[in-house]
Amino acid sequence: MLIRIVRMTFHPERIPEFLALFQQSENQIRNMPGCRFLELWQDIHEPTVYCTHSHWDSEDQLNAYRKSALFGQVWPATKALFAGPPLAFSVQPATLPPHSAPAL
């Protein structure tokens, strides 16, 4: 599983446009092959900062979405509302070594 976070800063007056765009496209994104989860976050201290948080079965499926006609419509419309560059990154749950009890 791949977790994708995209942090976006908007011009304050453009936030209603972004929220409408997200509402119009969120179910289509959720229905893309490999998308298991999508939600929108808002920073509690910087109200013009939003993040999308999505889960994908694989990087290939995320990339297929990024090459889709839907992404080709949604992303340029979203970018036009930005007040600064976005920050996007992909992560996965960390694998920790087994915890051993201290020797007595």
TrEMBL record:
It comes from the Bacteria. Residues 2-92 form the ABM domain. This is Quinol monooxygenase. The keyword Ion transport does not apply. GO terms for molecular function: monooxygenase activity. It comes from Hymenobacter endophyticus. It is an enzyme of class 1 (oxidoreductase). Its EC number is 1.-.-.-.
